[in-house]
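User: Just a sanity check before I run the rest of the batch. Below are the structure tokens for the first item. I only need the designed sequence back.
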């Protein structure tokens, strides 16, 4: 196939319309932001950036796992030495199960589905529904060392806010 440049040979304006059209910035409506009051449709005021984006390196690396999956795979995890068998149930340290769990800042267990076995789960954090499901099935939600430290720090922060008279402020509600 011939190139566009070759096809344009002999054409006076090379696809640029009338010979008047390619005469500098006049055909484009001026240079830069000229004519803002006239060219309303395509030359609007900039909106700018709003808010604050937290730097990714300061965000905690949170890994999650569903309670349903732990319940279904408990026997397989025990066979692979990732869970211990305890009387009529299993004890599972979630950091061993979750991919890159030992590198994560927080490993959280989420509730979902049903729990049919007695499970003792060790994790850094639990959702309210996960704790409820484990309790209903006769299991236990145990905070890991990291989880206990985080909960203690959170409790101290709340106590400090209460002592300083900062409870009920807008910052606490968000």
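Assistant: Here's the designed sequence for the first item:
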């Amino acid at each position: 196939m011939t190139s566009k440049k070759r096809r344009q040979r002999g054409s006076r304006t090379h696809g640029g319309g009338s010979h008047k059209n390619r005469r500098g910035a006049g055909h484009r409506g001026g240079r830069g932001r000229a004519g803002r009051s006239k060219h309303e449709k395509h030359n609007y005021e900039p909106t700018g950036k709003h808010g604050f984006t937290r730097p990714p390196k300061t965000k905690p690396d949170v890994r999650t796992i569903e309670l349903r999956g732990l319940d279904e795979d408990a026997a397989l995890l025990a066979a692979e030495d990732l869970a211990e068998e305890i009387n009529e149930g299993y004890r599972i340290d979630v950091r061993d199960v979750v991919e890159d769990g030992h590198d994560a800042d927080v490993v959280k267990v989420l509730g979902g589905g049903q729990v049919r076995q007695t499970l003792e789960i060790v994790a850094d954090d639990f959702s309210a529904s996960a704790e409820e499901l484990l309790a209903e099935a006769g299991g236990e939600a145990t905070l890991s060392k990291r989880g206990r430290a985080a909960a203690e720090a959170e409790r101290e922060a709340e106590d400090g806010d209460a002592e300083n008279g900062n409870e009920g402020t807008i910052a606490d509600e968000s």
